[in-house]
Every structure is written in C-alpha cells, then in structure tokens.
Amino acid sequence: MSGRHVAADATTDLTLTVNGRETTLAVAPRTTLSDVLRDRLGLTGTHVGCEHGVCGMCTVLVDGEAARACLLFAVQCEGAEITTVEGLGSAGDQHPLQRAFSHHHALQCGFCTPGMLMSGYDLLAGGTYDEGTLAQDMSGVLCRCTGYRGILAAVADVAATHPDGVPAPRAAVPAALVGRVGGVSAGPVPETEEAPEAPAQVTVPSGPPTVTVDVEEALTSPIDDVWAVLADFERLAACLPGARMTADLGNDHYRGAAKVALGPVALAFDGLAHVVEHDPGEHVMRVLAQGADRGGSSTHAVIRLAAHATDVGGTTLRAGADVHLSGRIAQFGRALAGDVSRRLFEQFAAAVDEAARTGEAPHPSSGPGPLRLLLTAIRARLRGAFGR
Ligand code: FES
Ligand code: FES
User: Fold this and answer.
1) CA 99 vs CA 5, 103, 117, 388: distances in Å
2) Neighbours of 363 (CB within 10 A)
3) What pTM does this model have?
4) Domain definitions of the chain by residue range
5) 247 C-beta closer than 6 A to ligand 1
6) Residue 144: nearest ligand to its CA?
7) Crossing angle between the packed helical segments 148-161 and 96-103, to the nearest 10 degrees
8) What integer best gives the mean pLDDT of the chain?
9) Which atom of ligand 1 is closest in space to residue 69's alpha carbon?
10) CATH 3.30.530.20: does it fit domain 211-385?
11) For labelling alongside 341, which of 3, 17, 109, 375 has CA 20 to 30 A away?
12) How do residues 67-98 score in pLDDT, each as one tens digit?
C-alpha cells in the first residue's frame, strides 16, 4: 500500500492487474475492492452478501491469496494482482474446479458459488488440503441454501484428481472488463463473445455418467451397407440430429458442430470426436466425443456402436453411450435427458438406415427435430406417470 494522502472527496489513480490485465482507474479512497470489481470493471461474478467480512461471498485472490474484497479498500491493492472468478476459467475453458462444481451439482441458487470456487482454489493451491478438515477449511464461505455436500464433494474430487496440485487460474479474460464509469483504461470491449476454443484432445470426466443409453434398433438395410455409413464419418455425422462435421483433423479426430434446442434452452456446441476403435470384421466402433456451448454447457460421451446381421437380411444396430452433461443442459435431469438421448439415438438409427438404403447422407431437415423429441419424451413420461 502506498503512503499517499487523498482527501475523502477526491479520487486517486489506482493501477491493478485484474485477471491478467493491467487496468488504471480513478477511485475514491473509500471505495472497496468489491465495488471496483463489480461497479467499475463489470466483474459481477464477485458477489457481495454481508459487506462485513462474514459471509465470504466476495472472496477473490489478491496476489495469490484469498481475501474478502468487501473488507479491502481498492487503494490498498495498488499494484496487486487480483484474480476473480471470471479469471478462474471461462465458459469454453473451465477450470477443473468449475467442471467439478457442475458435475457434482454443487450449487442451488448459485449465490455463494464464486466465493466457494475461489476459496476452494485457495485451499487446493495452498498445499494444505486435508480431507478430514475439508468442511472446516471451506467454512469461510457460507451457503444460504446449505448445499454443502455437493460443494465439498467437488473440492474433494479435484483434490483427488490433481494430487500434484490444482492448475493455475486461466486468467487473461479481458472480455469482462467493462468500464461502467469513466476513468478506466481497460481498452475496448469486444463486440461479441468469442466462441469457445474447441479442445485439442477428447477427455472423458471421471465419475459416473449423467445418463447411460443402451438402445437397439432393427434396420432393414443389409449390414455391409450399414457399415459403409458407419465407416464414413461425414455420412455418420450427418445422421446425428442437428450435427455436422466441420473438419477432418486426421488420425481419426474430427471436429463438428451441433445445434440443440430443447424447450427454452438453445445450445450451439462445437466439439471434437475421436474414433478410438473401428473394427470392420466385428462391425463395432467406439467414439469419444465432447462438446462445449458458449453458455457453459458441456457434454462428454463414450459411444459404442455395434452392427449385427439378422437372419432376414437386415441389421440390428446397437448403440450404447455414457453421457456426462454439465451446465444448463444438465437442468433437464437424468430421466428426461435419458429419454431425449434414447430418442436421438432412435432417430440416428433411422437416418443410418436411410443413408444405407439410398447411398446418400440424409437430408439435414429430415426427422422430428430436437424440440419435438423433447415434447415427445415429456408426453411419454407423463403418460407413464399417470398410467396412460
Ligand atoms: S460480502 Fe464480503 S464477506 Fe460478506
Ligand atoms: S447455493 Fe445458494 S447460497 Fe450457496
């Protein structure tokens, strides 16, 4: 902290590095760090609850240490490096803690989530993690929804999967730096949010999948024609409702895009698929796939396809998938997501049959579409619930 004297009604220039970006702005000496982050820089991920240092909602990292932003005057942080929850990771490049919170459903209203994430990061990065004292160590942030079990499970999960230390914050997220009041030299705000970077490698999360799908469909086409579709990834991708292949990356890696509109949730995924097994003799293939939506939803799946010739010259296509969902798409819950996934596979099988029969990729607009699939799934579930 500098020894400057500033009149209470005057402002002084303050330079901070926030999420990897240096920023200078004029602040009144009484302004708290939380107010500067939220009201001057637009980083509203730092929540404010009590403003008395009790609830921990405002936890950020100041020079790598967790601190309550409501208890610090911004001018105390001259020259400091500040990391907020926006710097921990972005929608397209989430920090493992963010992924774990999503996977373990470690939030209810979400108000405490930024403070919990930053506090959890501080604990894991500090090298003092101890499962036996985890609840106590995380008690500096209060959850008014009392959703502690998922929160502790998420932190414990990251501790277990990163025994050599938790990855550093991704930082450098200037898109959120918005000068709401004059005096900020944070540079222009990009007009549009960048689409999430598609990952270079497919990774499948540890832990149980959100949904497991195992369906079998009888196709009229002979097995050789069906396998010809499955062996041509471009035609295969065209059979997936709403999906298309955008690049063949070589080495059995493919980039693709998919649009899913499930009721009020409209998602545009960019993703990567890796064919890890493709056996023309046994007619089986296994694909790892992952996709991310710029709104923070993500899916990971291990997909197994197996084709068997039937006695009457057709093919039985069996599809199994372990699907991991996180973000908004996980709102649908396991049962409904399972129903929708099964119907998507049924539609996929029908499209494969058509492509095998015609020798062409199916028309992109054929099939009922994801929204219709969702409504069909809901109706079927309601009919099941009421015995009709
Ligand atoms: S808002 Fe800072 S501790 Fe409650
Ligand atoms: S999830 Fe609501 S305050 Fe923690």
Assistant:
1) 45, 6, 11, 39
2) 11
3) 0.49
4) 12-176, 211-385
5) no
6) 2
7) 130
8) 79
9) 2
10) yes
11) 109
12) 999 999 999 999 999 999 999 988 778 999 99
